[in-house]
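Fold it.
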Amino acid sequence: GKRISVYKATISLAETALQNAGSPKPTLFSFLAASTAHMIDEPIDEELLPGDRLRYFYPMQLDETLDSRFKTIAKLGFGGGSTVWLAENLKFKRWRKSSGPRYVSIKIPALDTNASGERMKSKLIANANPSHEGLSFIRIPIDEFKLQGPQGTHSCLVYEPMRETLFRFQRRLPQQRLALPLFRCYIFLLLQTLDYLHTECRLIHTDIKDNNIMMTIENDAILTDFANHYKKHPQPRHVRTEDGRVTYLSEDDFGSLRGNGLLPKLADFNISFPGLVGDGGHLSAIQSHRYRAPEVLLGCPWSYSVDIWNLGLLMWNLLEDVNLFDRPAGEDGEYDPHVHLAQMVSLLGDPPRGTD
């Protein structure tokens, strides 16, 4: 139909726009740089989290086989509630699509985090309307499994690997801005995702920003080269003297761009909210400070429109590489919603009067 044709044309335009974007800036660090496995003398990554959080994280080893299917290659990242690992799919068959991709990224949540909510939302998103084009630009798990650790069972999620965040991708481009043709294509695709989330899934993302939009990997050879490098040169690690526990230093730089097939996918639905029936709205505090919508600042009920506000601010940042509301802070340097609201009024004028 006409909608499918527009969708395909947008993908083609995005690829053309990337070709014409000029020579992207190299990243500061490249996995192709010479490196050797070495020991680190001080705590790193999740070891630095406050309290005794480390014991809730699974003590992964490189070359470990998970669920009899996935062999770990490198640690891609960590956060307050999980670690993420690149792994090789041991069941991969090039001629059989159902075997899944050759390489996957596996998110292993800490035991003191609630991973069930993320799984439930992912299933809702995957099954609401699989024929909708917007689903293609939402990052959801392709598999899941349980992993028994020394402290309990971890509910792991398996994803297709992504290159990097939209924030990092933008830093590579000339003047750190998206060219207008590329900008139009990406925003069109993101609007498709919001249409799917809001109308089919009845979900409000609540945290749309460049760090929660992932870019696809443009060339399969990138993953192969990355994996081969870390098979020969294992990542640096720290070993605790008291119990011998190993923590690896994460690395997620896949090197310079090698093609033009990068497309955005909306990710991170941990704090998404269900849309309420009728005119009902939520009252919870949401959104990053600079991306906070007026109704959230004022403590008013909010709904799907907060995602549209976020998208509008993101659009500005992609074209200008500056925040529309810069440093809304008080005299103490801390975020101040009054200053933020004053910036909105200064830029947009007085808000419309309410009705009695």
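The chain is about 30% helix and 15% strand.
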